[in-house]
Automatic annotation (TrEMBL):
Protein name, as recorded: Pentatricopeptide repeat-containing protein
Pfam hit, one: PPR_1
Keywords: Repeat, Transit peptide
InterPro entries linked to this entry: PPR_P_subfamily, PPR_rpt, TPR-like_helical_dom_sf
PANTHER family referenced in this protein's UniProt entry, alphabetically: MITOCHONDRIAL GROUP I INTRON SPLICING FACTOR CCM1, PENTACOTRIPEPTIDE-REPEAT REGION OF PRORP DOMAIN-CONTAINING PROTEIN
Gene3D superfamilies: Tetratricopeptide repeat domain
PROSITE patterns recorded: PPR (PS51375)
Top-rank lineage group of the source organism: Eukaryota
NCBIfam families, per database record: PPR
Length: 348
């Protein structure tokens, strides 16, 4: 009997070691996670909760990548199996419940998410991990319940001894912007940046470039270009470095507004400031220019893509093929880099 117990224990420890190593290396895929879960379930010990958390996280992240609720539902099923079917009782910890809350939010079952959060409080754990509550904030914002999210952030989090971080505020900003409540989002941004009383309550809060990118995108969508440009110009005063994502928003808007000289100047300034254009930015610029029929400029930015050894995205390739299948554009092929002129030849 002792030999059998020893073998089960050794197998459990080996599974935990493999799961931990795979999780740390980022190589724990969905199928492997499910196989390892089945193995661990029959050999588990109380301390196996850490390994189970790795497995649940892997399944949960598969759901996030594919924007599907099916894996979130699977996580809930696996959680129930962990609770009910393990040969030795494994008790969930704060991390386990945090994973579960995230899944409930993605499944649009906020009521279950809050019930799980209530269970955490009832258990007596200190909820000073902002990640747990931030998932509920995102769930509320996704459900267009931004007012309730604001109440959680301003009132409930401080009551629980949990100081909101910039991710919490960015979630709320995005929620306001998605509901086209740009004015309220702008008020929140100014409060975050300039209100001294607010800063005292949210100590160590540092705005990041994502904060400004969210707000600039919303202002541009709302037709408030001047406000967006003013905010864009103020970014450096907060000690932040502009990134390609922020430049992309402004660049696309300038092209759409046909302010092409201003756009070229912006791109030059970006390169001088040391912000290297990424593949997404250059592809987006090429598509915008092609859409308005500016083949010459599009060709210049296709050359930049080539110089950096970036690939064309499928949507960019599709637009090029569609455009040069039309006779009126075939004589413009001379403006394209050499490698793309086959588009014109193929039509002939």
């Amino acid at each position: 009997m002792s030999g059998r117990v020893s073998a089960v224990r050794d197998r459990c420890l080996e599974l935990e070691r493999v799961i931990g190593a795979r999780a740390r290396s980022g190589s724990l895929g969905l199928d492997d996670a499910l196989k390892l879960f089945d193995g661990l379930r029959t050999h588990a010990r109380p301390a196996s909760v850490i390994a189970f958390n790795h497995l649940l996280t892997a399944v949960s992240r598969a759901s996030g990548r594919r924007s599907s609720t099916s894996e979130s539902e699977l996580v809930v099923s696996l959680f129930n199996q962990m609770i009910c079917e393990c040969s030795i009782k494994v008790t969930p910890d704060l991390c386990t419940y945090s994973i579960l809350i995230g899944c409930f939010c993605r499944m649009d079952h906020l009521e279950h998410g809050f019930a799980t959060f209530g269970l955490i409080l009832k258990t007596g754990w200190r909820v000073n991990n902002v990640v747990v509550i931030s998932q509920l904030l995102k769930g509320l914002c996704d459900a267009k319940r931004v007012g309730e999210a604001m109440d959680v952030l301003i009132k409930r989090m401080p009551e629980l001894g949990c100081t909101p971080n910039v991710v919490s505020y960015n979630t709320l900003l995005k929620g306001f912007c998605n509901e086209k409540r740009t004015g309220e989002a702008l008020e929140l941004l100014h409060m975050m940046a300039d209100d001294q009383a607010f800063k005292m309550c949210s100590k160590d809060l540092q705005l990041d470039i994502i904060t400004f990118t969210i707000m600039i995108g919303a202002l541009l969508k709302g037709g408030r270009r001047e406000d967006a440009m003013n905010l864009f110009g103020a970014i450096s005063s907060y000690g932040l470095v502009l990134d390609a994502e922020t430049y992309c928003l402004i660049a696309e808007n300038l092209i759409e507004e046909e302010s092409l000289e201003e756009f070229d100047g912006l791109f030059s300034a970006m390169e001088k400031n040391g912000t290297a254009p990424n593949s997404r930015l250059l592809n987006a610029i090429v598509r915008r220019l092609l859409h308005r029929g500016d083949i010459s400029r599009a060709g210049a930015y296709l050359s930049k893509l080539n110089e950096k050894n970036f690939s064309l995205e499928a949507s960019t390739t599709s637009m090029l093929i569609s455009l040069f299948s039309r006779e009126e554009y075939q004589h413009h092929a001379k403006f394209l880099p050499e490698k793309y002129r086959f588009l014109n030849e193929a039509k002939k």
